[in-house]
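Narrative of accomplishments. A recurring question from our advisory board has been how the design workflow behaves on a single, concrete structure rather than in aggregate. To address it, we present the structure tokens for one chain from the evaluation set, followed by the sequence designed for it. No filtering or post-editing was applied between the two.
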């Protein structure tokens, strides 16, 4: 009996083991064999359900055709802001629209081809949350990205770039900057304000929409259906850019900083800031209606056009600061290429000269610190106050291997001579000529050096920009 019981148990166990092994083999083949024709990866299932044909892979470098501009304007201010937009807009090359609050009046028609095509924003007043909004006007601006996305003309778009109509773009620098990033991933690119009070009132980690910010297509694709819900969550927000940043933060997207985007929350003369621009490509300038003309003896419109003359020749160096020294005269020279040049009648280290002269004021008073960067005070000390020159013209020389930019004295400095031993007055210098390489774009973040060329007996200073030598001390 015992032997017969043991035999049956062994047979039953053997059958059970064989059956279990067969089941496990089938499960392994079905679930874990990646070569099985019937198996489909979960991510592939998601791709099949949600095809994304508009997000182009990174086979081709980003160019201007991949950027769609979403500009925001209104019919009341358009006549004064139109020249700023037209200074950089390239008909038949730039993509996008300017979204207006109402149809342009007859005097604006026919709409010029030199301006972006206009569109009318969708009616935000029909939203249930509209009456609850702290600043209903901002809902129109906030939803302009949604309106642009819903137009459907998004084939090949990699980036949506949002900005106000009083913002000037430098397109080559914009494209070079966006090309660093993978548009198939979620990116929110921009810059905070220069003014501490602005960031305190709104946010230090928010892109200011007037100056402009860029959203990758894949991010807009996810953001667009949620924008009305975002208004429901943040009816107390007072600005469209704050709404955008709040909505993106809820999606887990943080701001990627690009220092060349300038909100210009400043008043008065911003030449001190532009004359000490950091070594990064200048991408945008905003708020031209709130500041003095950036060139003397010109109105705001002509001053912008004058700057764009230099931008058309070499945007990679535009406004970026280069410092060199004339040891024979004990002079320090600061060049803001395409914008200005300064001569100081003493040797001042670069660590000091790279701080902007505080020629400007914050847009709103508050306790110090006032700015998000270090500044130098304007002084009447002849050893510390510069002789100031502004860009007169920029042109390529024969053979296109060199660029010549010329800077003309603004006015006599009307200060005495620096009395340090060995110093000489720079009062006799009328113009500064700067020679730069026309064949090589300046690399972002890279500092250039310069030499003062022989100028004995001349009232013109000649300077040659060059690469810094390894280990060269700029002091």
């Amino acid at each position: 009996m015992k032997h017969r019981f043991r035999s049956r148990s062994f047979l039953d166990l053997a059958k059970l083991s064989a059956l279990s092994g067969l089941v496990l083999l089938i499960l392994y083949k079905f679930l874990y064999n990646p070569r099985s024709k019937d198996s489909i990866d979960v991510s592939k299932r998601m791709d099949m359900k949600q095809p994304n044909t508009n997000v182009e892979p990174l086979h081709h470098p980003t160019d201007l055709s991949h950027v769609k501009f979403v500009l925001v304007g209104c019919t009341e201010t358009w006549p004064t802001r139109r020249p700023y937009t037209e200074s950089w807009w390239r008909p038949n090359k730039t993509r996008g629209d300017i979204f207006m609050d109402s149809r342009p009046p007859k005097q604006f028609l026919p709409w010029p081809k030199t301006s972006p095509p206009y569109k009318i924003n969708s009616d935000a007043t029909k939203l249930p949350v509209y009456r609850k909004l702290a600043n209903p006007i901002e809902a129109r601006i906030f939803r302009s990205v949604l309106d642009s996305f819903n137009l459907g003309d998004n084939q090949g778009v990699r980036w949506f770039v949002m900005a106000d109509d009083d913002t000037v773009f430098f397109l080559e620098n914009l494209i070079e900057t966006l090309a660093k990033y993978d548009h198939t991933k979620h990116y929110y690119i921009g810059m905070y304000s220069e003014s501490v009070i602005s960031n305190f009132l709104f946010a230090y980690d928010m892109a200011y929409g007037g100056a402009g910010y860029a959203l990758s297509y894949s991010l807009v694709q996810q953001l667009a259906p949620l924008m009305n819900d975002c208004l429901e969550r943040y009816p107390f927000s007072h600005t469209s850019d704050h709404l955008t940043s709040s909505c993106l933060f809820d999606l887990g997207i943080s701001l990627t900083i690009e220092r060349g985007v300038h909100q210009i929350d400043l008043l008065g003369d911003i030449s001190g800031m532009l004359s000490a621009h950091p070594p990064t490509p200048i991408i945008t300038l905003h708020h031209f209606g709130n500041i003095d003309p950036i060139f003397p003896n010109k109105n705001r419109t002509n001053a912008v056009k004058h700057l764009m003359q230099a931008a058309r020749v070499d945007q990679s160096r535009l406004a970026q600061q280069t410092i060199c020294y004339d040891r024979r005269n004990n002079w320090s020279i600061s060049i803001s290429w395409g914008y200005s040049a300064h001569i100081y009648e003493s040797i001042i280290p670069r660590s000091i000269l790279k701080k902007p002269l505080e020629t400007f004021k914050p847009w709103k008073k508050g306790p110090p610190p006032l700015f998000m960067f270090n500044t130098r005070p304007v002084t009447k000390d002849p050893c510390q106050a510069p002789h100031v020159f502004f860009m007169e013209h920029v042109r390529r020389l024969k053979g296109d291997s060199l660029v010549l930019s010329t800077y003309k004295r603004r006015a006599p400095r009307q200060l005495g001579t620096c009395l340090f031993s060995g110093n000489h007055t720079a009062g006799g210098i009328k113009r500064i000529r700067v020679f730069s390489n026309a064949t090589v774009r300046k690399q972002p973040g890279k500092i250039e050096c310069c030499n003062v060329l022989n100028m004995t007996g001349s009232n013109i200073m000649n300077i040659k920009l060059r690469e810094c030598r390894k280990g060269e001390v700029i002091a």
